[in-house]
Amino acid sequence: MVHIQRRERFNAAHRLYNPDWTDERNFEVFGPCANPHFHGHNFNLIVDVKGEIQKDTGFVMDLQVLRNLIREHVIVHLDHRNLNLDVPFLEGKMASTEVLAIEIWKILQPLIAKEGGQLHCIRLEETENNFVEYYGE
Ligand code: NI
Q1: Cα of 96 from ligand 1 centre, angstroms
Q2: Which residue in 14, 42, 44 sits closest to 30, CA to CA?
């Protein structure tokens, strides 16, 4: 079993805000992340795919194919967008990095499987210090 990883980058705005709470409660829990005028991050998305080496190519999965899947199905929906307002697959959900990682998994897992790969991990880096990893469970 070998793992391959592809990094893609995007920038997006968001706000952490629970509409079921008062503004006071939101600022208490989320601090400046609840700022009504949003704030932005330069995200790194690292997609880890595992599998056996294919005899014909020597690849687990063609990284060019993986790159295109990530860009066409994920990055195009997120880059230069507002995660609270612009992204259909986040509608009605908290715009946290955790939730976003899970939604990215749901999109990519079947697409990667169709190409013969097995999605192992979605790693989403929100800042240099804050990361989320999701392994599908
Ligand atoms: Ni933030």
Answers
A1: 7
A2: 14
